[in-house]
């Protein structure tokens, strides 16, 4: 399991998944089971062992649905840098992460601007063509789910402070409307 996770680890972020033009896609446990050939229960135990050994962190992002319920998404798995130190590969990891960061900076410079500006645009604004998707389908393509959820939570908090008597369903709908209108602009 660890071998499969390391094979799909992004060096810049140490997350397990595949970077795409639409954003970073975390691998599901089902995919890792198919890739490794392990049965599901054995893979679950292996993941639990990796987490318990502090070699892997796993966080479960969720998406708020229109009806106010939550839907779980693919868990974000990140490899602890101490794993590489345990095998004497800390310096090599640092070198490879620097190279990965330089590749990202070069990509940002090619589009004009800095890596910070490029990242913000890529994560929050996305592409104007992909941000025109309908409200029922979750965050627009090209927008990082965690960034989108953070923006939604901040909007909900502002709305709650401004309009304390607004029902939660209306507050969620209004936050969604505001955020989508900003993304279209």
Description:
It is a single chain. By secondary structure, the chain is α+β, with helices and mostly antiparallel strands. The chain folds into 2 domains: 1-91, Arc Repressor Mutant, subunit A (Orthogonal Bundle); 107-185, no CATH class. The chain is 54% helix and 13% strand. The chain has 8 helices and 6 strands. It has helices at residues 2-7, 29-36, 40-52, 82-86, 90-111, 115-125, 145-162, 168-184, and strands at 15-20, 23-26, 56-59, 62-64, 70-72, 76-79. Strands 2-1-6-3 form a 4-stranded antiparallel sheet. A hairpin with a 2-residue loop joins β1 and β2. α5 (90-111) packs across α6 and α7 packs across α8 (168-184). 12% of the residues are buried.
Gyration radius from CA atoms, angstroms: 19 Å
The largest pleated sheet is described as: 4 strands, antiparallel
Proportion in helices: 40-55%
So how many helices? 8
Overall average pLDDT: 77
Taken together, the total number of domains comes to 2
Q: How many beta-strand segments?
A: 6
CATH fold label of the largest domain: Arc Repressor Mutant, subunit A
Q: How large a portion of the residues is in β-strands, by DSSP E?
A: 5-15%
Structural class comes to alpha+beta
Per CATH, which architecture of the largest domain?
A: Orthogonal Bundle
Shape: globular
Q: Which sequence of strands runs across the widest sheet? A: 2-1-6-3
Would you identify the regions where 5 or more consecutive residues have pLDDT less than 50? 124-137
| Head-to-tail CA distance between termini | 44 Å
Given this structure, which CATH class of the largest domain is correct? Mainly Alpha
What order do the helices and strands follow?
A: HEEHHEEEEHHHHH
